[in-house]
Specification:
The complex is a heterodimer of chains A (about 100) and B (about 250).
Chain A: E1 11-14, H1 22-41, H2 45-58, H3 65-79, H4 83-99, E2 101-104
Parallel strand pairs in A: 1-2
Chain B: E1 2-6, H1 10-22, E2 26-30, H2 33-42, E3 47-51, H3 59-68, E4 76-80, H4 85-93, E5 98-101, H5 106-119, E6 129-132, E7 135-138, E8 143-146, E9 149-151, H6 155-166, E10 171-173, H7 174-182, H8 191-204, E11 212-217, E12 221-226, H9 229-233
The chains are: A mainly alpha (about 100), B alpha/beta (about 250).
């Protein structure tokens, strides 16, 4: 994956007290990108739905509303077995994770 | 408060545990329903926080199991990303006391926990008192009276008495007592609890002839009960006997 230009980077403000938890949270989401792609390759929509459901629930609690939104979209697309739509959301997730800048305040 | 959390998503579990610890609660987290139920079979908590979608047994089945296996009075808070009205209704009808839709918000979660525990009468609020039959417990002055007469107790005996009176009728584990009263790991020596309970039984007169029973429940802990005239005529329910452990259902 190439460098993300500074101009398109997302900046997320997270409470400083969560600084020790956020790296683990983001690592889980990065691991899920691969799991989602693999699940879509074998048309395993239940796994996609389950991962999306968990992302929807966890993201905004850490301040990552975008991740909750992607999770909600994945959950809905998996329910309708929309592989192309789900793959687009996986790309959106990968791009977000590659470009996000976390600001602890 | 001693809280059991069932949550399979590690990020969500991390966050909730962090928030609970920051508010002074002791959180025991589980990521599998069967492990959670095994813990409930031998332990007690002030509150249960349950996720709905789990890899082995769904949260509503866990709730039904808990209600049927001696945890019928512990407050239960469901947390789930399911946000349809029928899901909320189903969880409440299954026996949940409250329901929070994820993503969770820190202050709302903590406020709802406080409200649930307060309504269940399990909160230790300094400045307020407890009145249980002939006993009055002044949590601020740390004084217990029986029919107006002060009973002299050590600090630990007072804390233990206040905890037991907040849990009249509930089975409380030795680990629960240790964590709440001594603030220590439940893995440490539980004989301390037995010694203090025995002393408290005598000092407070928690005996059948006074309308009380403070029973040791084999492999579980203790239960303080207010006896009815019928109970007083009957033998103790399970005094130091081999009470059968609740069965934990197998995963489908």
């Amino acid at each position: 994956m190439g460098d993300i230009p500074e101009a398109v980077r997302d900046s997320v403000v997270v409470p400083r007290e969560l600084c020790e938890l956020v790296p683990r949270f983001l690592a889980h989401r990065r691991a899920e990108v691969d799991r989602l792609r693999e699940a879509l390759e074998r048309a395993d929509f239940e796994t996609v739905r389950s991962i999306g459901h968990a992302m929807k629930g966890a993201g905004a609690g850490y301040g990552f509303d975008e991740i909750s939104a992607i999770g909600a979209a994945l959950e809905a697309l998996a329910r309708s077995h929309d592989a192309d739509g789900a793959l687009a959301e996986v790309r959106r997730l990968r791009g977000f994770l590659a470009g996000v800048t976390v600001v602890f305040e | 408060m001693r809280i059991a959390l069932l949550e399979d998503d590690p990020s969500q579990s991390d966050l909730v545990r962090f928030w609970l610890a920051g508010a002074g609660h002791v959180c025991h987290a589980f990521d599998r329903a069967r492990d959670f139920m095994r813990a409930l079979a031998r332990d007690s908590f002030d509150l249960l926080v349950l996720d709905w979608e789990l890899p082995d047994v769904n949260g509503d089945a866990v709730l039904a199991w808990a209600r049927a296996n001696g945890h019928d009075s512990v407050p239960v808070l469901f947390t789930t990303a399911r946000d349809r009205e029928e899901d909320i209704v189903a969880a409440l009808r299954a026996g949940a006391d409250d329901y929070l839709i994820k993503p969770l918000r820190r202050h709302e979660l903590l406020a709802r926990i406080d409200a649930l525990v307060r309504r269940a009468g399990r909160a230790a609020s300094p400045g307020t008192g407890l009145k249980v039959a002939e006993f009055s417990i002044d949590l601020e002055r740390r004084v217990i009276t029986r029919n107006g007469a002060r009973i002299v107790l050590t600090q630990k005996d007072f804390d233990l008495a206040a905890f037991l009176f907040r849990n009249v009728g509930n089975l409380v584990s030795r680990g629960h007592i240790l964590e709440t009263v001594w603030g220590r790991s439940p893995d440490l020596n539980t004989r301390t609890v037995d010694t203090h309970v025995s002393r408290l039984r005598t000092k407070l007169g928690l005996l059948p002839e006074n309308g009380w029973r403070l029973s040791a429940i084999y492999q579980h802990g203790y239960r303080l009960e207010r006896l009815t005239p019928h109970d007083e005529a009957a033998p103790a329910a399970v005094p130091e006997a081999a009470a059968p452990a609740p069965r934990v259902p197998r995963a489908p």
